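DM from R.C. (forwarded with permission)

"hey, sorry to bug you on a friday — could you get me a structure for this? deadline for the figure draft is monday and I only need the backbone to look sensible"
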Amino acid sequence: MANFPPQSPSMKKDELNPSVCASSTDSTRMMYAKRLVIELINPDLRDNALNVLSKDEI
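My reply, with the result:
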């Protein structure tokens, strides 16, 4: 049985991406971006985090 990493904001981009919510604040967007940068440390989450960070959607 495989152990999968917990889902991250980059994996649930549509649900948690502040750019999807019209009422998002700059602080919420900053927290989201910080979380994605932290995910760069985890090899299992790195590809998704890089993909989201490379787009201008944050």
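R.C.: lifesaver. The chain has three helices and no strands.
me: no worries. Residues 44 and 50 are 12 Å apart (CA to CA).
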